Amino acid sequence: MCQLLGMNCNVPTDICFSFTGFQARGGVTDHHTDGWGISFFENKGIRQFLDPNASAHSPIADFVRTYPIKSKNVIAHIRKATQGEVKLENTHPFVRELWGQYWSFAHNGDLKNLSLNLSGRYTPVGNTDSEMAFCFILQELVNEFGEKAPALDLLGKKLHQLTLDLASSGVFNFLLSNGEFMLAHCSTKLASIVRKAPFSVAQLKDHDVKIDFSEVTTQIDRVAVIATNPLTENETWQIHEPGTLLLFAEGNIIQEFKTTPGTPSIT
Predict the structure, then answer these.
(1) This prediction's pTM
(2) Which residues, 6+ apart, have CB-to-CB distance to 156 below 8 Å?
(3) 221 burial type by CB count under 10 A (0-12 exposed, 13-18 middle, 19+ buried)
(4) How many CA atoms, within 13 angstroms, populate the side-chain half-sphere of residue 175?
(5) Which residues share a beta bridge with 255?
(6) 37 close to 52: Cβ distance less than 8 angstroms
(7) pLDDT(263) > 80
(8) Which string of b and e fits 82-119 if b means at least 16 CB within 10 Å?
(9) How far apart are CA 218 and CA 223, in angstroms?
């Protein structure tokens, strides 16, 4: 299946180091060669790069890897197609507007025989299960809360409910952000790390590259990185439990919505 990469920070930060290892998974160290994409939030705007070609051999990916775009929220995706042709319109992340904000979404998984009633406000452009699920989520948020964004805890509860419903159709690992916070769902596989002072040296798994974060950060910096599989070999990543929806803000996990037998619970 696909690979996910997300970053949530308390100060604008570039993702060059993590993306260097991530890019290699699109055709060198892994077989996800059906396209890639990345979204950078910058204040109210969003900067996005999409390519239906393999990231390991993409000049656009090379540019992103070496260009230090600073952002507090980034979502990247490497695709291995399960539904929908290998085309630009089927390349993640997908972006839509909700409550006067851009929302970006990327999915790792496969939702079998997905049949959703879409009203028309949010309609897929391509033909993937992923984009259809994203449109359905946004539609149901509007149906629940109207034209005004709810409190964050209410939003999290509703998203967890929608996530569990959609995950009943298959594998539904995803990243979702509006530029202020990030939500990450572990359906089968997801890991994260929060880097903060004192910073140390990190070594990539997929590339012979290391960095001493103490040389490129300040004492107040806090950076959360989320990935399908850990990107470094000398750091301790948290491996998340299936059925967990994580809410990241300012470089920290601020809330977890977990599934217990029968009902969802919040920790």
Answers:
(1) 0.94
(2) 183, 245, 247, 255, 257, 266
(3) middle
(4) 34
(5) 247
(6) no
(7) no
(8) bbbeeeeebbbbbbbebeeebbbbbbbbbbeebebeee
(9) 11
30 pLDDT above the threshold of 80: no
How far is 148 from 174, CA to CA, in rounded Å?
24
Q: What CATH number should be reported for the domain holding residue 256?
A: 3.60.20.10
The count of residues in the chain is 267
What number of CA atoms fall less than 13 Å from residue 131's CA on the CB side? 21
CA–CA gap between residue 87 and residue 139 (Å, rounded): 25
Give me the amino acid identity at 145.
F
CA distance 209 to 234: 12
Contact 10, 221 (CB under 8 A): yes
| pLDDT tens-digit series, residues 41-99 | 999 999 999 999 999 889 999 999 999 999 999 999 999 888 888 999 999 999 999 99
Q: How far is CA 84 from CA 81, 105, 107, 202, in A?
A: 7, 17, 13, 37
Which residues constitute the domain of residue 225? Answer: 3-266
125, 90 Cβ separation under 8 angstroms: no
pLDDT of residue 1: 66
Residues 13 and 211: beta-carbon distance below 8 Å: no
Give catalytic residue positions. 2
Number of domains in the chain: 1
